[in-house]
TrEMBL record:
Organism this protein belongs to: Coccolithus braarudii
Protein name per UniProt: FH2 domain-containing protein
Gene3D superfamilies: Formin, FH2 domain
Domain FH2: 1-110
Length: 110
């Protein structure tokens, strides 16, 4: 008879088929806002920015960039989206850079 599915949903199959495709969870405007702000910290990694925030390191994070960085903090809805994505056991490195940054910044206590 016809083969039954093997428990994978259609989206999971399409993701598996294009393993190099990046996953986008944010709307384009929000993603662009985060990318523009992140460009100001190059070549620092997302982790380096998070650590600089925790240490109040003014060598990496100048005072005039704090408001922009604050705007990039993940909101409750974004945290929920990221959590749902990760509980689906998808690797975080498949996320777009803006989503990866929110994931890193989610580790900063409010």
């Amino acid at each position: 008879g016809p083969r039954k599915g093997r428990g994978m949903s259609v989206p999971a199959l399409s993701l598996a088929a294009s393993s190099t495709a990046k996953v986008t969870l944010l709307d384009v405007k929000r993603s662009n806002q985060i990318q523009i702000t992140l460009a100001k910290f190059r070549p620092a990694s997302h982790e380096m920015v998070r650590v600089a925030v925790l240490r109040l390191d003014e060598t990496l994070i100048k005072a005039d960039l704090l408001p922009q960085l604050r705007e990039c903090a993940p909101g409750p809805e974004e945290l929920e989206l990221l959590h749902k994505y990760l509980t689906g056991e998808e690797p975080s490195d498949r996320l777009q850079p803006a989503e990866q940054f929110l994931l890193e910044m989610a580790k900063v206590p409010r």
